[in-house]
């Protein structure tokens, strides 16, 4: 009997130890490994709180460390706080001659997006290599002794434990129990937000919902070069013969009525890091499952003497590029991401893999297919994936550029009226300045029998605008201890301006300031007094208005 009790006691201790090892607790729990998540974690730690970052990604920094090195800065003078510090740390990194492996610092003459690549006055750098960004984020985490759990995914099949409107804990797929007092969902998808029962929207609202102009379906809107307007290309397998069927990458669905809302999501892509340096180049090869018919439209585009293939091969240091979408048929995999925001992890994985195959195939087509002009083929053959980037993934980016997924619906919703200067706020937590920018959402057949893209919008605000505190807060009735600095409370078209990486970092820092005050006073995040918050943001170097 005594020995049985001893065995039971030992087993109980083993079980308790295992449960303890599998349980993680912090004042502030941040779900996500994005730039916003890391900045939020750094700020929370600086404010004296225990912090836990639970990152589905194995690599920190989101798209900022996964190819988006040509920063969408807008007015860089209005980027403050830790967001600015990130770009200063990038600047500092490149002051070391050892950072310049493939070209000299003096030989780099890259430009930034609306700013200089290197701003000597503010000691910031707005273009950078992916591995440099990841190094900055990793060093930040190490220097601040932040606990990060990588490759840990919210178990979406297990309900989140809540006490009334407050999240208490959630589980990861590996079985880890995550407990906290305040939670921040800084993912691109908003999975924790959704699991917590917070209202959200996927797709485009009708213009009538918020009395907007640039939301909803936007047929015939040509504000960039990402359309077929002047090309007049047939979408049919046998040109001008509808009975032959549609070529690949063209929808057979009616596009809808202008201004109406729909389920469609703006296109995603990977931001590719390519190089011409022979010693640092992985050749472009034929991807598995490659079918040249998938790029039939591109062949027809070239037949119309289109000459802008390399327009968005933006230069970053060390003879590399950040390759973005440009033109009617390019890196954006239009129409292939509609299911992504709400999809299961396995379904998302399949969508991500399809996007990778599409872009790998696009490069291969451009280097090999006879329909591509010889001059362009020969130029593309000089390029390859950078060997010293994404070294565990064959030189291919880890993170798909999820431009938009879920968007929270809080008590305060940012709309184009905020961005276009028609509505102000007295509770600013940061400044935005980028265009109302949406990528295409569908490729359809016009009434005249031509192929066309729809959804691309680019409208410049008259001046920078304030982002309201409520933009990152759910309704108190739904969740009282959650802050959402990425999948913010915004209409689709306003999100097109807010969704830039510097702004996500600004909002991540503000999220932790709000979390800190909520902890200090033991109140709901919605009840944090802005008169107490504002001076703290200003003290941190945040910029709250355009002076």
TrEMBL record:
<dbReference type="GO" id="GO:0016491">
    <property type="term" value="F:oxidoreductase activity"/>
</dbReference>
<keyword id="KW-0004">4Fe-4S</keyword>
<feature type="signal peptide">
    <location>
        <begin position="1"/>
        <end position="18"/>
    </location>
</feature>
<dbReference type="Pfam" id="PF12831">
    <property type="entry name" value="FAD_oxidored"/>
</dbReference>
<keyword id="KW-0560">Oxidoreductase</keyword>
<keyword id="KW-0456">Lyase</keyword>
<keyword id="KW-0479">Metal-binding</keyword>
<dbReference type="InterPro" id="IPR036188">
    <property type="entry name" value="FAD/NAD-bd_sf"/>
</dbReference>
<dbReference type="InterPro" id="IPR039650">
    <property type="entry name" value="HdrA-like"/>
</dbReference>
<keyword id="KW-0411">Iron-sulfur</keyword>
<protein>
    <submittedName>
        <fullName>Xanthan lyase</fullName>
    </submittedName>
</protein>
<keyword id="KW-0408">Iron</keyword>
<keyword id="KW-0732">Signal</keyword>
<dbReference type="GO" id="GO:0046872">
    <property type="term" value="F:metal ion binding"/>
</dbReference>
<dbReference type="GO" id="GO:0016829">
    <property type="term" value="F:lyase activity"/>
</dbReference>
<dbReference type="GO" id="GO:0051539">
    <property type="term" value="F:4 iron, 4 sulfur cluster binding"/>
</dbReference>
